[in-house]
Amino acid sequence: MGALVLTTASAALAELPEATAAHPAREIHSVAALAVFGGLVVFAVILSLLHLYERSRWTRRERELAAALDVLRGAHDRAEMLLNAERQIIVTWDRRSEPVVEGDISLAIHGERPTSGYARRVLAFGTWLIAADADAVEAAVETLRARGTSFALSLRTQTGRNIEAHGQAVAGRALLRLRETSQERCEIADLRATLDETRRGLSALSGLLDAIPQPVWRRNREGSLSWVNAAYVAAVEAESREAALDAGTELLDRPARETIAREEAARSAGLTRSVPRLSAIVAGSRRVLDVFETSLDTGRVGIAIDVSELESVRVDLQRQMNANVRTLDQLPTAVAMFDVSQRLIFHNAAYRQLWDLDQAFLDSRPSDGEILDHLRAERKLEEHADFRGWKQGVLAAYRAAEANQTWWYLPDGRTLRVVADPNPQGGLTYLFDDVSDHLNAESRYNALRRLQAETLDTLAEPVAVFGADGRLTLANRAFCTVWRLDPAIVEERPHVDTVIQACRSLAPAEEPWLDIRDTVVGLESRTARSCRLEVVDGTVLDCAAQPLPEGATLLTLIDVTASVNVERALTEKNDALEKAAQLRDTFVHHVSYELRSPLTNIIGFTQLLGDETVGALNERQREYADHIMRSSAALLVIINDILDLASIDAGSLELQREEVDVQATVEAAVRGIEDRLAESHITLALDVPEDIGSVHADGKRVRQILFNLLSNAVGFSDAGQRVEVHARKDAQDLVLSVRDYGRGMPAEIADSVFNRFESHTLGTRHRGVGLGLSIVRSFVELHGGRVHLETAPGSGTHVTCTFPISLSGRTAREPRPEPRPPVPPPVTTPRKPGMALH
Fold first, then answer.
1. Rounded Cα gap, residues 782 and 649, in angstroms
2. Which terms in the Gene Ontology molecular function aspect does this entry carry (predicted)?
3. Which DSSP state fits 274?
4. CA angle, 571 as apex, 568 and 577 as ends, to 5°?
């Protein structure tokens, strides 16, 4: 057609100039006709090319369909051959038609040719099967037709032959196959079943592969894509299956395909069984794929499984396992894991240290039995008479369904708690826990607990322990005896309220029991408490509630009946003594006051006689008058001392503070003792700085203190010895000390020299009533100071009085009693040689 059109067009073009010249008016019509003719020529050429292309494509498609048809025809022929190669019957039902019977029915059941009613006779199972099998197959067929439930039965005919019956639903139909179970027939039946499965698989394979989410492809022998499923099309983002096949769009790049080819070759050679894991772009995102491709007669088929999430989980799992391994290495419990083949797959550092095993030996993945044999050879396991039997018992844990716990007693004295826990995926996990210290501690604890219980039971004092829940956990026999508690009740661990209720009948006072209950079950801060319980029989118990660790409370009772009775007696006696002392002080005060007035008169009249103002005295009278004067003065000093001490005890003596010149005060006290120093031939040494200044104190009492100290020093010094007086003052204290080098005093006497009426001559002529040093200590303490005595036999005596400068004076004692009559001031008399001053 194209050639004809071209020839006609050439002729028309050749005639065009002549026609144009002859007929100018036709020129336009000729050009238009020529344009139309050219368009037709182009259209014809394009249409011819399209026809050739479509013819080629349909020819190729026809060849492919013919090849597929040949394959299906071959499969159908083989199926028919296999179906007819065995004597069997196949019965099919659909929903509307009658059952169809196929197969070698001439010999299968009755040995007769098929007729119009043969199918009904075949399905009348009771006519050729035994009754039980006939009922079973009829019920199974009804269930198959109604619900599509498959079944497989072994039947026996009335003639003794064995028949296999298989029922299943296929493509909306119910299918029943009956065949003899001889050896040859079994093989033929298997081949036919395989053929049926293949046929059904071929019919559903395309839909199945399109339904799965994994990309699947098939290649021809040249390596080009010949078929892909819908997931493959979506993965390569193609418009359709045909577009992907025509373009030859590959899911994997060339290096990945080469890797797959190498892995396939190695797998075919038996060198590896691994599936290559590759990275590819799937639907626009990077994914990790497990790719499996295998060879067929007509080419290759492959599938790619997306394992991106699995890979992520695997990485996370590996990271978690590494963390768990590091954690297990830090545990003190030995851990060892064995796989299904009883090979060591993991152990922590504690396991290696527990058995002292070589790392190289553990890295070789020894079996559990090998490790036990090695430990036995190293004498690290307990000796067993039947080691083989014991070992089999240990390895029997691999077949157990639950964890098993045993105890291993090692030769070195350690005790191990061994837990064998089966793993879900097979194998076993051992946990070795060294409980030697725990058992020893528990044994010691139990022994200590028994010892404590026995010890408490032997105590005479009642003892009870209450737990954190307020229940009685321990009570000795004495506690039960005192409160008359039944031991059976104590064994039941009664609550503290029950115990108190039982004890209240013997000690009815409520307040002590409330304190005890608060200590045992109180929610506030638990502190130790003590109280006293008085029993109705006169017994007095001191109760102490002491909190213990972990919320427990210890209750102890002590019988103080005897001490309370003694205390009461002593209290009554002390009250009587205090009353007697008060009467004595009152008596002394009044007696001293009453003696002082007559003594003042005696001294006054004696002075008048001594001055001879009333008349002259002879020598003997003057001597008597002097004796009377000295004795009266000594008696007056004693009375004044007694009155001073009485005033101090009564709290009525107050200091008359003034600015006192220390040096002048010392000299005044020395002048009062000069006559005795001269009489006894004793040297006095004064160490008083001229710039010592003054202090705020009672000058009269300071002079009295120094006078008494000097009198004692002179009285206990021998002729020719020396007495020293020292005075020092700093910013805080004034220190006055008197030291003699006489005989000194032993320690037992030195401890009592400051007590009243304590007088010790120590073999000297010194006499006194024992009030001098007592007066000294009282006056010093009134000034807020202190007295210190240093003495030893043969070393003399050193008395130091310290007066604080910054402290103000205070009264002797508080509280003050009722005011007493005022004491008249003492009569001042001149001291003469031989006058006794103390």
1. 11
2. phosphorelay sensor kinase activity
3. P
4. 145
